[in-house]
Request: fold
Amino acid sequence: CKFWSGIKAFHKTIDQLLGYLTWRDSKAAVISFVSNKELTPVLEVIEKETSGHSSFVKYQGKKKDGWFMFEFHLPGDPGRSVQLAVLVFHFP
Reply:
């Protein structure tokens, strides 16, 4: 769980989470709390800019507003994929 503070910090959050996972882990989630007045620009940035992460494999789509699904690989092991859910909650 993290408070949203931009895409660079979001990528660092993904790095932190992937660093905790082992080859046995196949699913993980990032919960992001957004205090910005407007939520839509943040959702757009997450959807478009997450692909810039070095371990990004593919965007699997949006389940609902504020719920994105991605596939990443573990750092140093491109053959081991992790399904990453990103859940966004607005607290203006």
